[in-house]
Amino acid sequence: MFLRDPARLLDLKQAMRPEWLWQKCGPDHLPLYLLLPYDLREVAKSICCHQDIGADSCFALGMLAHFEAALQKPWLYRNLYWECGMLGQVLYLEAEAAGVRATGIGCFFDDEMHALLGINGHAWQSLYHFTMGGAADDHRLSTLPPYEFQP
User: pLDDT tens, 23-61?
Assistant: First the structure.
């Protein structure tokens, strides 16, 4: 769990499974926590609509939003998605800079994500999922060179 707002740590701990470890890991300056020391690749694949990319990427993540505010002020709803989109754009740029690829996951099971985390109610919601890893050509897709039809 990477907390963008460390002030939300207690809120998230109370909203999620009590058995999570919440063990601080990574560099001291990053609010990064280990919740569970298990291989969850198959779970990630399942949550990502059974897409292999959920399990085969370097990492897959789900962005949780404090949704309660949007329930009280509906105009905030779109702002939550804007924030997710901005974070996704930063992840795309960082992936390119690191020589890997990234993609937003268009299909994911938010209820399954909530069940995994132990989230009940609507105070916290999974709004956007993302993966990063090495490029893999999908031979089911075809591409054309850019500007092929211009004189």
Answer: 999 999 999 999 999 999 999 999 999 999 999 999 999
Task: Compute φ and ψ for 105, nearest 5 degrees.
Answer: -95, 115
Residue 65 has pLDDT above 90, yes or no: yes
Two structure tokens written together for 76: 């905030």
Q: What is the DSSP string of 86-145?
A: HHHHHHHHHHHHHT-EEEEES---HHHHHHHHT--SSSEEEEEEEEEE-----TTS----
Whole-number Å distance between alpha carbons of 123 and 69: 8
> CA separation (Å) from 99 to 57, 63, 87, 90, 91?
14, 23, 18, 14, 12
- Contacts for 57 with CB less than 8 Å, ≥ 6 apart: 131, 132, 133
Q: In this structure, what token pair is assigned to residue 142? A: 């075809």
Say which amino acid occupies 83. E
Tell me which residue of 10, 3, 11 sits closest to 123, measured CA to CA: 11
